[in-house]
Amino acid sequence: MPPADGDMDDLTKPIPTIKVVIATSWYKKANKTTQQTQTQYTQSHPPQDKYELLPAFLQIRGLVKQHIDSFNYFINHEIKHVVRANQKVVSDADPNFYLKYLNVYIGEPCVEDNYEIKPTNPQQCRLRDMTYRAPITVDIEYTRGKEIVTKRGGQPGQGAIVIGHMPIMLRCDRCVLRTIKSDKDAADLGECPLDPGGYFIVRVCVGVCGCFSLKKGDNGNHGWFGGVVG
């Protein structure tokens, strides 16, 4: 609500000097207290102590574990919430018809070779200029006339119908690299044992295959893409 005509004069009046002095004094005192606290913390926790903890942190957590954990939560839990929020599809032409998604699953990375579905790994996708991806399958329920038809996958963790594909983050719960336990296992799959994962292998266009990863910035998370010309 705009101020009344009589109140406009109060807005143009200068702030009393005593209020300015009190505010300035409080700010200086608070700033001094903050600086003292920071100085005490630095003295009790010297920088060299933090550097000694760095190797243990890298060994236990690493630099990309937060990305892998976030992606695992998405493919195991969050994607089910997304589908559940949009699970029923109706028809304007036939009010009695509907299609309902009962569940959604993210499968294992695979490729189609000579009309046959075969498992794959990241190195094969790099060499063949392919996206390292897995199928998205769903269980559905729909009406056919007056009959309600339900289709479910025949195997655990697999739906009845493929509705799309999703790029798979390296070393996530669906990646074949998650079972690597030794340097020899990594070498057998053509991977570097020191590669922490946490990125995607995607095909951008013909002859170009790249790695897509995430980085933390001041304004949120951003994607970083590095292309390799084949």
Task: Report what the structure shows.
This protein is of the alpha+beta class and 230 residues long. The protein has two domains: 19-60; 61-229, no CATH class. The protein is built from six helices and ten strands; from the N terminus they run ααααββββαβββαβββ. The chain has helices spanning 5-11, 17-44, 47-60, 65-85, 122-127, 183-188, and strands at 88-90, 98-106, 110-113, 116-119, 133-144, 147-151, 161-167, 199-205, 208-217, 220-229. A hairpin with a 2-residue loop joins β3 and β4 (116-119). The longest helix has 28 residues, at 17-44. The radius of gyration is 29 Å and the shape is flat.
Quick description:
The protein has 230 residues and is of the alpha+beta class.
Number of helices: 6
The largest sheet is: 5 strands, antiparallel
Helix proportion: 25-40%
Uncertain parts: 221-225
Number of domains: 2
- Percentage of residues in strands: 25-35%
Structural shape:
flat
The oligomeric status of these chains comes to single chain
What structural class do you assign from the helix and strand content?
Answer: alpha+beta
Which secondary structure elements does this structure contain, and how are they paired or packed?
Blueprint: H1 5-11, H2 17-44, H3 47-60, H4 65-85, E1 88-90, E2 98-106, E3 110-113, E4 116-119, H5 122-127, E5 133-144, E6 147-151, E7 161-167, H6 183-188, E8 199-205, E9 208-217, E10 220-229
Antiparallel strand pairs: 1-2, 2-5, 3-4, 5-6, 5-7, 8-9, 9-10
